[in-house]
Amino acid sequence: MIYVVMCAGALLLIIGLSLFLYRDGLHRHSVIPSSPSLKKALVNCPLCGSPLASGENLVSRIYRPMTVPDQRCTIAGCPHCYPVCGSGVKRVCPVCGKTVPADGYLIARLFNKTEGKKHVLITGCTECCKH
After folding, report:
1. Whole-model pTM?
2. How far apart are alpha carbons 96 and 124 in whole angstroms?
3. N or C terminus: which one in the chain shows less Cβ crowding within 10 Å?
């Protein structure tokens, strides 16, 4: 009887230890990095989907003064797709799925939150928002 209790205790100890190590391993090898500098490296261009390296920026224009919470914004592209599209790179609108020409751009809204953060909402492109 004592051997059964000892085996059950050892089995529970092994299971608990393996769950703890498995959970700890998931946190250490997470796909999304935890440092802010590494998170910036995971930004993709909304037009062509190319990952932006550190130092690469989107070409965009923001309209109205910065004091308002909602601004109109246009996004022309990244160094991979604007002003000249690289080989194998396609400029596609994330809203309508149409191909955006080289002189086209995305139309977006830029929201300035009170905490200092910014949020961009893409509403379309020059092909699907022809007003």
Report:
1. 0.63
2. 7
3. C
